[in-house]
């Protein structure tokens, strides 16, 4: 009994830390695992056994394949078709959510969203739609798509592997499809009909070329012959100004440099394009001898050149920018990148940018060398929102990954090769055939997810070994006493769904599966409907932005607040729960 209380206490503390979000979820999971090991709840030889689990290897392989499909332009080629759907808002909604759902059945939800968000923004700005009315249904569609196949989302992979450990046979790659596909269709139709009444229409996401009024903060300063800064470097001028002040361009006669190097020396008659508020500009004029030279309204034409770009990007859920500011990162000094603006929940933040600490979902407007910007986005875990060139390359590069992926699906679907082996072979084939360069092999894997799975799988086993899973199952059955068995299935699905909104959905699946198995054993019925209920529930966190990376990605571009998600997510969750339970019991009878 003491072991049950100890493992329960560890998991409860971990859940609280997940919600507080002070430490990243993989760190919390690892601390919980080590605490359980120190208390003897996890045998010494099994502490790190989760990292060798077939589910972890399968998730890593699927992430590599997803990145290869993204990089080769397969999803881009599909996304390019969206330009032909016209400017009717309801047509855009159906096309974008449908395509996102389809892609998410086979590749990473996050990867599909990273491709589709720029397409959605472009369509909504050029057409009659509003981005906020499209982006949330797209995010929810990506979650629905994950339920269609075993490889669509980590919870399905985990549930399949848990079934293999208990019965010796895992779920097949399309065993999830009867329930998942039906749920996806119902969810899409629900959103097509009702999302316009339930999704908040945000003014910050109205159609426009940019959510930022950059020109309001751009000013021309003239360098006269008698200025003390003639012959000095740009760095020396910027260093003299305590407030936020950035020189974003320099004009010298017919020449112009966007994002000029900080070591470039100023000359008499130079014109500086600076970004700062009125108070800072006055301070600069008072101390530098520079003069105002703004005879016309400035706009973004001063920010770009053949080599310099201005690109929007979203701060990802595990970005290295989170909790840090531009001054902490020294982006200008290290990379030659200027932070021109920051928007949070659709609203531009005050223009003193140097000390703003970034949060997941923030939308940044960055200026710099185009190639360097791509590296910065990748290095810091951000997703670019600017329309990118299609990466389809040669025809061979487009069809080769599709062929490898299709072969992997076929081998596993017909039972010729197990899913972990099949998809690991496919990931290897992608690397060997140079569909994905070997240098990108490990960067394409979402390592926090891998660490989370490796740490929580032994915790799930400890929950079952200690008897805590049986106790929780007995309590759940006592609550539904004298009710039919399907009530227990529905209760398990609802708890899994709620839990996935506050912790990572993979962790929710790991923790709830042993409880489902215990409930089935107590009732003396098949465990399959209970495992399917956990899989469906864990894969559909619609109530909060922190429930899934897809929800976070649309938070900034859509201008959503934390409390906006449940307005569409709650009725959608209720509808899906009501249709999923009888469907699960019909496909997987007790």
UniProtKB/TrEMBL annotation:
It is found in: Membrane. GO terms for molecular function: monoatomic cation transmembrane transporter activity. Residues 205-290, 297-383 form the RCK C-terminal domain. The chain crosses the membrane at residues 6-25, 37-70, 90-121, 133-151, 171-194, 398-425, 445-463, 475-499, 505-523, 530-548, 568-588. GO terms for cellular component: plasma membrane. Keywords: Membrane, Repeat, Transmembrane, Transmembrane helix, Transport. Its main location: membrane. SUPFAM superfamilies: TrkA C-terminal domain-like (SSF116726). GO terms for biological process: potassium ion transport. It is a multi-pass membrane protein. This is Di- and tricarboxylate transporter.
């Amino acid at each position: 009994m003491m072991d049950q209380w100890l493992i329960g206490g560890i998991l409860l503390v971990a859940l609280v830390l997940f919600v507080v979000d002070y430490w990243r979820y993989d760190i919390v999971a690892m601390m919980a695992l080590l605490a359980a090991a120190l208390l003897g709840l996890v045998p010494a030889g099994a502490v790190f056994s989760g990292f060798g689990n077939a589910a972890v290897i399968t998730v890593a392989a699927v992430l590599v394949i997803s990145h290869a499909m993204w990089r080769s332009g397969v999803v881009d080629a599909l996304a390019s078709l969206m330009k032909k759907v016209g400017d009717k808002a309801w047509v855009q909604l159906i096309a974008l959510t449908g395509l996102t759902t389809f892609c998410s059945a086979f590749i990473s939800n996050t990867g599909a969203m990273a491709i589709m968000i720029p397409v959605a923004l472009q369509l909504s700005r050029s057409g009659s739609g509003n981005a906020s009315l499209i982006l949330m249904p797209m995010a929810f569609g990506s979650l629905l798509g994950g339920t269609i196949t075993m490889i669509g989302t980590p919870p399905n992979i985990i549930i399949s592997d848990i079934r293999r450990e208990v019965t010796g046979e895992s779920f097949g790659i399309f065993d999830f499809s009867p329930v998942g596909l039906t749920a996806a269709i119902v969810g899409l139709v629900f959103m097509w009909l009702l999302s316009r009444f339930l999704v908040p229409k945000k003014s910050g996401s109205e159609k426009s070329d940019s959510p930022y009024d950059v020109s309001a903060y751009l000013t021309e300063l003239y360098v006269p012959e008698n200025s003390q800064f003639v012959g000095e470097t740009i760095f020396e001028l910027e260093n003299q100004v305590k407030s936020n002040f950035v020189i974003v361009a320099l004009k010298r006669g017919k020449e112009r440099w966007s994002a000029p190097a900080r070591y470039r020396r100023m000359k008499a008659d130079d014109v500086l394009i600076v970004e700062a508020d009125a108070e800072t500009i006055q301070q600069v004029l008072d101390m530098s001898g520079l003069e105002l030279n703004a005879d016309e309204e400035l706009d973004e034409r001063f920010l770009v050149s053949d080599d310099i770009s201005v690109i929007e990007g979203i701060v990802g859920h595990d970005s290295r920018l989170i909790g840090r500011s531009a001054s902490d990162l020294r982006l200008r000094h290290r990379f030659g990148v200027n932070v021109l603006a920051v928007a949070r929940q659709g609203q531009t933040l005050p223009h003193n940018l140097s000390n703003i600490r970034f949060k997941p979902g923030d939308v940044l407007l960055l200026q710099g060398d185009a190639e360097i910007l791509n590296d910065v986005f990748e290095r810091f875990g951000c997703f670019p929102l600017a329309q990118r060139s299609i990466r389809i390359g040669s025809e061979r590069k487009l069809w080769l990954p599709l062929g490898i992926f299709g072969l992997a699906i076929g081998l596993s679907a017909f039972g010729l090769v197990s899913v972990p082996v099949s998809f690991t072979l496919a990931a290897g084939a992608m690397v060997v055939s140079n569909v994905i360069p070997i240098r990108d092999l490990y960067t394409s894997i979402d390592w926090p997810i891998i660490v989370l799975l490796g740490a929580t799988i032994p915790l799930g086993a400890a929950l079952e070994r200690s008897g805590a899973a049986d106790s929780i199952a007995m309590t759940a059955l006592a609550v539904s006493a004298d009710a039919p068995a399907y009530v227990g299935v529905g209760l398990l699905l609802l708890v899994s769904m709620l839990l996935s909104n506050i912790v990572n959905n993979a962790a929710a699946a790991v923790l709830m599966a042993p409880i489902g198995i215990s409930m089935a054993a107590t009732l003396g019925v098949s465990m399959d409907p209970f495992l399917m209920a956990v899989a469906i529930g864990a894969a559909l966190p619609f109530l909060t932005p922190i429930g899934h990376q897809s929800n976070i990605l649309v938070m900034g571009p859509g201008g959503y607040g934390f409390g906006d998600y449940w307005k569409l997510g709650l009725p959608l969750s209720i509808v899906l729960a009501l249709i999923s339970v009888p469907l699960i019991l019909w496909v997987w009878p007790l």
